[in-house]
Amino acid sequence: MKASDLFVRALEAEGVEYIFGIPGEENLDLLNSLRDSSIKLILTRHEQAAGFMAATYGRLTGKAGVCLSTLGPGATNFVTAAAYAQLGAMPMLMITGQKPIKSSKQGHFQIVNVVDMMRPLTKYTQQIVSGDNIPPRVREAFRLAEEERPGAVHLELPEDVAAEGTDSKVIPHSKVRRAIAEDKAIRKAVQTIEQAKHPLLLIGAAANRKLTSKMLSRFVEQLGIPFFTTQMGKGVVDESHPLFIGNAALSDNDFLHRAIKQADVIINVGHDVVEKPPFFMKQNGLKVIHVNFSSAVVDPVYFPQVEVVGDIANSIWQISERLEKQDTWDFSYFMKVKEHIDIHILEGADDERFPVYPQRLVGDIRKVMPENGIIALDNGVYKIWFARNYKAYNSNTVLLDNALATMGAGLPSAMAASLVFPKKQVMAICGDGGFMMNSQELETAVRLNLNLVVLILNDNAFGMIKWKQSEMNFPAFGLDYGNPDFVKYAESYGAKGYQITSPDDIIPVVEKCQKEGGIHVINCPIDYSENDRILNREIKQKSKLL
């Protein structure tokens, strides 16, 4: 058969449902092969958005999301998405085209070495040099993308290779059971926890697997050990649980860090150093038990003394089977910290000032979103407010990026979530800066008939950097801009637009959008003027009193 037909059959054998992207002339054989396949092509308006959608599909399903571009500029537009998936441990396959490699009449027009470009950003990058190589290359790419730790992979399919004939057969998809931790490591972890006086459980991004979530919920119930999460670990265990202390949205000086300083052992499940540190380790300080699929990457702020390496769910099950509640454990101070955090989160939730203050916004969005509803956050200072103040009741209901922390991913991520879970309420929450980086995908969302609410937090500036600028006592400079009329902008794409004019508008407007379905864009002016006072000074001062 034609090599491009074999390529598509290999993708089908891997269970691929969607390919996100923008084809070019070098992909036309592959595009024609896709036409009669079971795979649906999602044509986007920018390759970066296609990559974000593929990565988020992978994050939500555990199956590698697939995205497609042409050579040269199309492929270079995948770079940020590749880093997003690789740092965030999201399984994703990028397919790029290339000029003929066996004979070329166009010199080096549009040609860059995409394979070498992708090498530092992926787990695997290969050019396919013959149709016979397609089955092993595709199988290996998916194996590596999906195996722990998941990440980005890349295949380049040149134009002449796609068009040639081949007699090769598809290699069937196969699963490999994860290795489990050795007995000695489990016993060492159990002994360390038993001897602790103030053990504390930390849940990170790699724990966001269905079975791991179940085992961790059982662990908390059985042993009564309080827990907190990293930003990307939100919702793995229900945050309405009475033993949930809070989220490490900041790296230090929050109320939560008083509990961390009191802890003598932290059971660190699924966190690694690609995510912004939830705390800083110091020599001769607390003990950390690293429970993860792979050993710890040692860093000046992270050097765990005990490591349990293997399937996380199995490790937690083994530990819980051998560990019993200890009379010597004392969690009273942790519960005191929790009380202060819960009080602080409620402060400002009824604030009537306008433009809207972040505390009020987060509180109202939590009220209006169902427990299984999904919010996809772009990158900005509001991400800290949502991580701290918005309780997640289920895993993967707060999609944020605390690894690459790129702007522009919020809207495409929400679109992917709506595709995967069409019956769930999904909301993209974006700053005006991040929204405009991929706002053209509104057309894609409308064309796909998605049900999606897009909430734009508008301060006419790059608010996160302005907050840092203020923290460093620099005068405001270089970070303000103008915006379009977002209501008219939404309407120009065939979506519906709304303008928030009072904090009291938020809940009824969002409820109206959710009830109607379709694509709705809400422009909400926001006031970040108290970020510095609250997040830099007030929390630090109040937490010291604990």
* Count of discrete domains: 3
Give me the CATH fold name of the largest domain.
Rossmann fold
Taking strands numbered 1, 2, ... along the chain, how are they ordered across the largest sheet?
2-1-3-4-6-5
Mean pLDDT: 95
Oligomeric status of the shown chains? single chain
Give the terminus-to-terminus CA distance.
Answer: 71 Å
Number of strands: 18
Supply the CATH class of the largest domain: Alpha Beta
Note the beta-strand portion. Answer: 15-25%
Helix content: 25-40%
How can the largest sheet be summarized? 6 strands, parallel
The outline comes out as globular
Structural class: alpha/beta
Low-confidence segments, given as residue ranges, are none
Rg, rounded, reads: 24 Å
Describe the structure.
This protein is α/β, with parallel strands linked by helices and 546 residues long. The protein folds into 3 domains: 3-163, 3-Layer(aba) Sandwich (Rossmann fold); 183-332, TPP-binding domain (Rossmann fold, 3-Layer(aba) Sandwich); 347-536, Thiamin diphosphate (ThDP)-binding fold, Pyr/PP domains (Rossmann fold, 3-Layer(aba) Sandwich). It is 40% helix and 16% strand. The protein contains 22 helices and 18 strands. The protein has helices spanning 3-13, 28-35, 47-61, 72-76, 79-88, 114-118, 134-146, 159-163, 183-195, 210-223, 255-262, 312-322, 332-346, 358-368, 382-389, 410-420, 432-437, 441-447, 463-471, 486-492, 506-516, 531-543; strands spanning 18-21, 40-43, 65-69, 92-98, 124-127, 152-158, 199-203, 227-229, 244-247, 265-269, 287-292, 306-309, 374-377, 398-399, 426-431, 452-458, 496-499, 519-525. The chain has a 6-stranded parallel beta sheet, with helices on both faces. A 6-stranded parallel beta sheet has the order 9-8-7-10-11-12. Helix 2 links the parallel strand 1 and strand 2 (40-43). Helix 3 runs parallel beside helix 5 (79-88). The radius of gyration is 24 Å and the shape is globular. The termini are far apart.
